[in-house]
Amino acid sequence: MPHQALSLLIAVGFVVCWSSGFVGGRLASALDTPVLALFAWRFLLAALLVALWCRWRLGEAPRARDMRREMAVGSLTMGGYLLGVIVAIDLGVSASVTALVTALQPLLAAALAGPLLGERLLPRGWLGMLVATLGVTLCVADDMQQPLAAPWWAYLLPLLSVISVTLGSVLAVRQAPAMPLSAALLAQLLAAAGIFLLAALAAGGGKLPAPTREPPFLAAIAWLVVLSSLGGYGFFIASLRRLGITLTSALVHLTPGVTLLWAAAMFGERLGPTGIAGMVLAGGGAGLAIRYVRRSDPTRRDRDARRAPRTWSADETQAAAHRVPSPGSQS
């Protein structure tokens, strides 16, 4: 597949599947099963499916060091991020507004990516980020005026999610990928499963409710596992590796529009005139930011790293000198 076509496929898949997570959270909050317990089962099942795939395709276990690094990434980009999002939705913050609040993540990502990763926004890109942030603010203000609005502090939880996923993204791209995508996804799913399992046990008094066979529960699990876990985070990892953190983060601004369409069709959620204006500003600002992002190509960095001559340490140089006989020692 041509380079640009593959990049476009990854970008579209990421936006669509990432949006499904907010809808899945809304589905989960409507069930009798505690939402934290459902998400613990979600990640356990997703991890099992990916583990079976890795066993069949890879054949050999990844190194423990690489697994620990990817689990640290997953604890931030999956566990910490979704914990704030799901609790916010459960408290009454609408799915579309939760998506918009978390769309503030590109601002923090752009600020960190410049000094740490060599990716930066041009001035017009920063203007786009600020316009998108203004749009997010208008949508939150509109949602807080609804009759059944969540408490004001619930809107702070998605901001904590923003910090968590940004730190995890920076950690993920600071080094060249050392594991296949499926193995990295498995490690991150296991980390998220552990976080939600602990949260569910703490909320349930040390007990984890068993999964049920009720159709709404099975539908929510299928949605969350296939679209949100395997699709959303699979495309997320692929996007970070191929497009970089700044462009991936800018794509997050496009997810609220998709989330709004799903939420309106499935749950009857509607934004008022102020919220719609904010949605338009967020989308336009994101497009401007995407156009004026200047970044280093992750795939080119990987190729350059493989082509770079190896630097020998002092110990290796000394050992090599002892192994090579001097001209005077040969007979």
From TrEMBL:
Source taxonomy: Bacteria, Pseudomonadati, Pseudomonadota, Gammaproteobacteria, Oceanospirillales
Spans traversing the lipid bilayer: 40-58, 70-89, 95-114, 121-140, 152-173, 185-205, 217-236, 243-265, 271-293
Keywords on record: Membrane, Transmembrane, Transmembrane helix
Stretch list, region Disordered: 299-331
Subcellular location(s) per record: Membrane
The UniProt record lists the keyword Chaperone: no
Protein's name according to its UniProt entry: DMT family transporter
Organism, as annotated: Billgrantia antri
Coiled coil: none
Domain spans labelled EamA: 8-139, 153-289
Keyword field contains Membrane: yes
A Pfam cross-reference name: EamA
Similarity section: Belongs to the EamA transporter family.
InterPro entries to which the protein is assigned, alphabetical: AA-Vitamin_Transporters (IPR050638), EamA_dom (IPR000620), EmrE-like (IPR037185)
Record membrane topology: Multi-pass membrane protein
